[in-house]
Amino acid sequence: MKRGDIQTLGAISYATPLMSTALLLLAGRGALSWTLAAAAALIVGGAVIAGRGLGKR
Asked: How far apart are the first and last CA of the chain?
């Protein structure tokens, strides 16, 4: 990260598990459940916490 912002990269990295899970659901390899919804909510919550203050720069 010579010229990039490591905090922004960290916040964006939370999207990876959500995208991979969405692809599995779209491909029919997974089933939507309350557990999956709760996990997605926790991931989004983590992204929100990690992303606080990024817009202030």
From this structure: 18
Tokens of 10: 């960290």
pTM strictly above 0.85: no
Distances (CA, A) of 18 to 36, 52, 56: 10, 19, 25
Instruction: Please state, in angstroms and rounded to a whole number, the distance separating the CA atoms of residues 4 and 55.
Output: 15
If one counts every other C-beta atom within 10 angstroms of the C-beta of residue 24, the result is: 13
Q: What local confidence, expressed as pLDDT, does residue 55 receive?
A: 65
Token readout for 51 is 């992303």
